[in-house]
Structure formats: structure tokens, C-alpha cells
């Protein structure tokens, strides 16, 4: 094997890993004063990792004897991950400076980089052990990020809950991996696929169930969603925005690769699990969000609801289904990051964060531009045309219909109407209720620009990108088949 070729294929992870280690040393010697430089350098490293995808890292094939896959599917997912990670770093300094009373510590961007490196390994894994190593690297950094505000009891509680339940999910996944290995004789995806194609095996079926249960926790699909609302509410808002976007993309892409490449011959078996998780996530995410008064908890249930729609595309198990998953994730990342950037602007006159939905009352009168952006994100999350969220839902339903899953498409469509209620409630509060005390003015050009960019992307203006985005997602999906 040519190790130089393999290293070129893993260049994005090398850039992130070496960059994180270098910045860790800078943070150790520079202390608090180095935070700004470390943060912007971390964003530059993420951009460099994205640029390094051009070439062998996106089309090289297999590296290290098949342990790592460098293909268009992984490259597409990594671009979304790096964008979400960069936004999470950019939105952090102002939040921590006003909330904790001191500036952001330089370890924050380093943890984001390490988490992004783990997520890159997850989406490029060609072996169950590679997958698990990447998953643990991502998770260990995420546990620290959730409890980053050490003096805040909610943040500490969020980190502890995430750690305990994450450890349980990792154990379930590892048990499933051991069963698959025991009955297939390999941890390589192609050899596992051969074992599933050889005929029915009760041991392999149990392994499949445990593996998908572990993956369901990582994407917060029902019934493994219990950690999501508490962690999203307790974690610092920039961290919550990160959790709701980048790890979701990585875990969903990882699940797609396992389902298609490793367990493709057992599609009829895992499809039943995916359909149940999809419908349960759509319905619970819609119903449970109705009674929420905290905007971050509402967005947590919204993420569960959206995961259900993504799983509808995966249930199809076709090229069109995988392409619809990637398209939905692209739109979802823009909607979610935009929504959390708006939440970041919710501060009272003293500069303290406010998270109640009631505090948005009359926002259209006090901050009309901010209200308009939130309106776009809420209606897009609800799937109302002509916003891009509608196209995303349409894509996954079309994939399900194309695969003959008519009942799934019909139930998913009907349940999406229920979910529209709580999004429209936020719009009603902003535009029709009596104004609440005005939020503190934010003069950050960067945050305002990011909100505007996300809003424009999911607005009807984004339709100009439908054709090229559709071609990219289809090409990425074909690389799996």
C-alpha cells in the first residue's frame, strides 16, 4: 500500500489534528490573551481542511487497506461539518464575554477542531472500529463543550447528562459491533455486506439492531432522544448551535454509510427500524414542542422532528433517498444555525441572555430585521413554500414514494402539519403580541451578516442553487452505490 497516497486522502483530518495540537500549545503559553488569535486561526484551519478536500481527499477511494473512504459522499458531509464548526467558533466570543463576565477561553476552538476531526473520521469510516474511534473523539470533545461554563449549574448538568447517556449509547453500539464482528468475522464494511448477503443469521440481525440503536442516540432519534432537550437548554448557546448542526450531519452521514455499504443486503431488516424511528421522531418532535416556553428546548424538539424527516429519505435506501438526505441536511444546517444566531441576540437591557418565547413578543416592532429573519427560519423549518425547507421535505417524500413507501410518505406529510403549529406560534408572538421589553442592540457585523446569509439561502432566492445543489447531492449519493 502507498502510504503517501493514503495520507493525502486523510489530509483534512491531518490538517485539523495538527492544527488543534499547535493551537493547544499556543493556548498553553499564551493564556487568556491568545483567545482571539486562536479562535480566528481555528476558523482558518477549518477553511484549510475544506480546501484540502479538493483532490484525493474527495475522490481517492480507499485508504489504509479500506479502513478509510475518501469519496464524494464524505467530502459533501465534511463541508457542512466545517461550516457549522466555523460558525460555532465565530458566535462564541460575544456570548461568553457577556454571560460569564470574562473572555472566552482558548480551549473552546481547540475542542471544536478535535470534534470536527472525529466527525471527519465518522463519515469516512470503512470499518466499524474506525467508525468507533472517530465517534469517541467527537463525543469526548462534546462532553467538555456541553459543560464549558463550569460555574453554571445548568451547563454542568447538561455535560453530566450527555456524558452518562453518551457512555450508555457507546456501550450499546460497541455491543452491536461485537455481535456483527462475531457472526461476520470482520469489521470491514464490504466483508460485513458479504456476510449479510450470504443468508439469514439471527446473530447478525441482533447486531444490526444494537448498531442502529447506538446510532439513533447520536442523531437523537426517538426513542433515544431523551438527552436532547436538557442538553440543548443547559449548554452554552454557541455549543447548542454546534450540537444541533455539525454532529447531527456527521452522525446521520455515518448512519447512511453503515446502512448502505455495510448492511445494504439487509435493507428489509434495517428499514423497519428506520421507519419506526422516523415516524416516532416526527410525531414526538411535533407534539412535545407545543408546550415549550423556552426557545432552546423548542429548537431541541424541532431537531428531533427534523431528524425524523431525514430518516424518511434513508428509509428509501436508494440513490435518490441518500441524495435527499444530503439535501435536507444542507438546508437544515442553514435553518438551525440561523435560528440559534437569532437566539444569541436575545438579551435584556442588562445584556443577560433571555430564552423565553414570551420575550420575543412584538419583536417585529422593536427589531423588525431580526423578526423577519426569525420568520424566514421558522416558516422554512415548518416546510412552508416557497422557502427551501419545503423543497427539503418534498425531496425526502419523493424518495420514499419512489421506493414504494407510500404509507410512510403520507403519515410523514400529515405529521408535518402538526409541527407547523409551534413554528407559527413563534411567528404569532413576534408579530401579533404586545411588545415585550426590547432586546439589547447588537452591532456585530459578523453575526448580522451570518443571519442575513442563512436567511437569504433558505428564502426563495436560494432556489437558484437548487440545480447545482441537486447535482452535487446526487453525485455524492452515487459514490456509495
UniProtKB/TrEMBL annotation:
GO terms for cellular component: endomembrane system; plasma membrane. GO terms for molecular function: NADH dehydrogenase (quinone) (non-electrogenic) activity; NADH dehydrogenase (ubiquinone) activity; quinone binding. It holds the Pfam family Proton_antipo_M. The keyword tRNA processing does not apply. The keyword Cell membrane applies. Residues 125-419 form the NADH:quinone oxidoreductase/Mrp antiporter transmembrane domain. The chain crosses the membrane at residues 6-30, 37-55, 75-96, 108-125, 162-184, 204-227, 239-260, 272-291, 298-316, 322-344, 369-388, 400-424, 445-466. This is NADH-quinone oxidoreductase subunit N. It comes from the Bacteria. Its EC number is 7.1.1.-. Keywords: Cell membrane, Membrane, NAD, Oxidoreductase, Quinone, Translocase, Transmembrane, Transmembrane helix, Transport, Ubiquinone. It catalyses: a quinone + NADH + 5 H(+)(in) = a quinol + NAD(+) + 4 H(+)(out). The gene is nuoN. PANTHER family: NADH DEHYDROGENASE. NDH-1 shuttles electrons from NADH, via FMN and iron-sulfur (Fe-S) centers, to quinones in the respiratory chain. The immediate electron acceptor for the enzyme in this species is believed to be ubiquinone. Couples the redox reaction to proton translocation (for every two electrons transferred, four hydrogen ions are translocated across the cytoplasmic membrane), and thus conserves the redox energy in a proton gradient. InterPro entries: NADH-Q_OxRdtase_suN/2 (IPR010096), ND/Mrp_TM (IPR001750). NDH-1 is composed of 14 different subunits. Subunits NuoA, H, J, K, L, M, N constitute the membrane sector of the complex. One of its GO terms (biological process) is ATP synthesis coupled electron transport. It is found in: Cell membrane; Endomembrane system; Membrane. It is a multi-pass membrane protein.
Amino acid at each position: 500500500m502507498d502510504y503517501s497516497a493514503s495520507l493525502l486522502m486523510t489530509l483534512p483530518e491531518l490538517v485539523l489534528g495538527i492544527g488543534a495540537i499547535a493551537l493547544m500549545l499556543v493556548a498553553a503559553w499564551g493564556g487568556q490573551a491568545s483567545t482571539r488569535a486562536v479562535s480566528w486561526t481555528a476558523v482558518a484551519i477549518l477553511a484549510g481542511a475544506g480546501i484540502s478536500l479538493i483532490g484525493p481527499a474527495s475522490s481517492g477511494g480507499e485508504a489504509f487497506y479500506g479502513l478509510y473512504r475518501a469519496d464524494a459522499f464524505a467530502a459533501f458531509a465534511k463541508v457542512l461539518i466545517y461550516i457549522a464548526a466555523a460558525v460555532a467558533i465565530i458566535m462564541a466570543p460575544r456570548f461568553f464575554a457577556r454571560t460569564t463576565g470574562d473572555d472566552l477561553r482558548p480551549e473552546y476552538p481547540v475542542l471544536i477542531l478535535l470534534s470536527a476531526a472525529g466527525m471527519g473520521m465518522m463519515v469516512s469510516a470503512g470499518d466499524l472500529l474506525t467508525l468507533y474511534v472517530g465517534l469517541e473523539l467527537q463525543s469526548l470533545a462534546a462532553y467538555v463543550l456541553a459543560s464549558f461554563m463550569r460555574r453554571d449549574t445548568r451547563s454542568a448538568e447538561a455535560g453530566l447528562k450527555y456524558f452518562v447517556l453518551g457512555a450508555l449509547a457507546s456501550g450499546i453500539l460497541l455491543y452491536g459491533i461485537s455481535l456483527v464482528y462475531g457472526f461476520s468475522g470482520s469489521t470491514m464494511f464490504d466483508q460485513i455486506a458479504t456476510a449479510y448477503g450470504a443468508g439469514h443469521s439471527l446473530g447478525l440481525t441482533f447486531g444490526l439492531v444494537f448498531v442502529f440503536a447506538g446510532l439513533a442516540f447520536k442523531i437523537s432519534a426517538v426513542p433515544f432522544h431523551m438527552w436532547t432537550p436538557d442538553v440543548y437548554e443547559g449548554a452554552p448557546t454557541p455549543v447548542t448551535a454546534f450540537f444541533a448542526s455539525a454532529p447531527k450531519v456527521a452522525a446521520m452521514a455515518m448512519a447512511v454509510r453503515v446502512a448502505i455499504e455495510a448492511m445494504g443486503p439487509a435493507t428489509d431488516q434495517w428499514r423497519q427500524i428506520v421507519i419506526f424511528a422516523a415516524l416516532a421522531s416526527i410525531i414526538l418532535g411535533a407534539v412535545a414542542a407545543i408546550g415549550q416556553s423556552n426557545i432552546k428546548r423548542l429548537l431541541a424538539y424541532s431537531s428531533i422532528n427534523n431528524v425524523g424527516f431525514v430518516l424518511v429519505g434513508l428509509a428509501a435506501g436508494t440513490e435518490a433517498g441518500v441524495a435527499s438526505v444530503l439535501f435536507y441536511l444542507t438546508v437544515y444546517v442553514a435553518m438551525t444555525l440561523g435560528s440559534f444566531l437569532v437566539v444569541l441576540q436575545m438579551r435584556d437591557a442588562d445584556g443577560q441572555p433571555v430564552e423565553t418565547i414570551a420575550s420575543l413578543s412584538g419583536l417585529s416592532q422593536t427589531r423588525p430585521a431580526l423578526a423577519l429573519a426569525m420568520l424566514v427560519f421558522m416558516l422554512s423549518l415548518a416546510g412552508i413554500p416557497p422557502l427551501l425547507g419545503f423543497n427539503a421535505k418534498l425531496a425526502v417524500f419523493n424518495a420514499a414514494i419512489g421506493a414504494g413507501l407510500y404509507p410512510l410518505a403520507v403519515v410523514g406529510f400529515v405529521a408535518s402539519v402538526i409541527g407547523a403549529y409551534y413554528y407559527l406560534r413563534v411567528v404569532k408572538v413576534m408579530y401579533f403580541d404586545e411588545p415585550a421589553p426590547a432586546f439589547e442592540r447588537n452591532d456585530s457585523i459578523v453575526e448580522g451578516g451570518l443571519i442575513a446569509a442563512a436567511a437569504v439561502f433558505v428564502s426563495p432566492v436560494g432556489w437558484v442553487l437548487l440545480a447545482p445543489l441537486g447535482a452535487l447531492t446526487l453525485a455524492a449519493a452515487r459514490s456509495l452505490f
